[in-house]
Amino acid sequence: MKLTKLVELIKGQVLTKSTINETEIAGAMGADLMSDVLTSIKPESVLLTGLCNPQVVRTAMIADIHAIVFIRGKNPDQETIELANEENIPLIMTTFGLYEACGILYQAGLPSFE
User: Fold this and answer.
1) What is the pLDDT of residues 38-55, one digit of tens each?
2) d(CA 76, CA 93)
3) What three-state secondary structure class fits 43?
């Protein structure tokens, strides 16, 4: 799934300077425990989470996560946004909850990486 399509489906708001383009997203995972993410997620994925701190971006860097979606309208602090900008990792915010956002993406054909 193209990142542009993902943003459209979840009615996302981009929080970083990263260009939302035709980057291909291979799958998704919803989690708040970064240890779970590191043991389960596959490269070229999107992470949906309610955790809004720099550790989420650092986890994305290690796991080759192509974008992070913050759920329930949560906004990360400036330090998190700046780190994501430095690493060119798009941060996206949606007002959907985790269950609903994951469901929307799954129903649209994005595989689960959980």
Assistant:
1) 998 899 999 999 999 999
2) 9
3) coil
